[in-house]
Specification:
The chain has 6 helices and 3 strands. It is α+β, with helices and mostly antiparallel strands. A 3-stranded antiparallel beta sheet has the order 1-2-3.
Length: about 200
């Protein structure tokens, strides 16, 4: 009877060190294992990478929209250059003519990149290019970090006059925190995109 008890106690005493040794081997094997390392590393860099990718996409889309606005304005302005605008925008109300010209610009923008409800148009006539330069410089719609187009209007030009046409778009930025902070210039999450063109009208009758 005494021998059996001794053997039982001996076996129980050996179980503790063996279990600790087995657990230690498991931890060592886990530390040496490379399974899933790539997934873990990607998890660490995925969020910064995706945020950077989105910022690049937004910046590219903003520049593309600005280019589309400039091209659409250039095409729509041809009617002013040739004098056709006198029949297209013949209302006695300057705001009505400006809205009609704005719609003509939006119609030439592909993929609905331009939100016409946030586009403002200014058409002014000057005697010479010097007056045009000083006139537009003194009327900056983005001055002070705010969008102010309250002075925008539509002035029907005459033959041989210098015309400056400006289009200002209140562009909504998607990222309003870290990425868009350096892009916004008229308040948080918004950037004013400006397209302009200056020319002398043709000698139409």
């Amino acid at each position: 009877m005494s021998e059996r008890k001794t053997e039982t106690v001996g076996s129980a005493g050996e179980a503790g060190p063996q279990a600790k040794s087995r657990n230690w081997r498991v931890f060592r094997r886990f530390g040496r294992s490379q399974d899933g390392a790539a997934a873990m590393e990607f998890g660490f860099v995925a969020l910064p990478f995706l945020m950077l990718l989105w910022a690049i996409f937004e910046t590219a889309l903003m520049f593309w929209t600005n280019q589309v606005l400039e091209e659409a304005l250039s095409q729509a302005s041809r009617s002013v250059l040739t004098g056709q605008s006198r029949s297209l925008y013949a209302s006695s109300n300057a705001a009505t003519n400006a809205a009609a010209f704005r719609d003509a610009v939006c119609a030439r923008a592909p993929l609905r990149l331009i939100d016409c409800s946030k586009l403002s148009i200014d058409v002014r006539s000057y005697a010479d290019f010097g007056a045009a330069s000083s006139g537009t410089a003194s009327n900056n719609p983005l001055a002070g970090g705010k969008l102010d187009t309250s002075s925008f209007s539509y002035s029907q030009p005459a033959s041989g006059q210098i015309v400056v046409i400006r289009a200002v778009l209140d562009y909504k930025l998607f990222l309003t925190s870290w990425a868009s902070a350096s892009l916004a210039n008229i308040g948080s999450g918004h950037r004013g995109l400006v397209a302009s063109i200056a020319f002398r009208t043709e000698p139409f009758v």
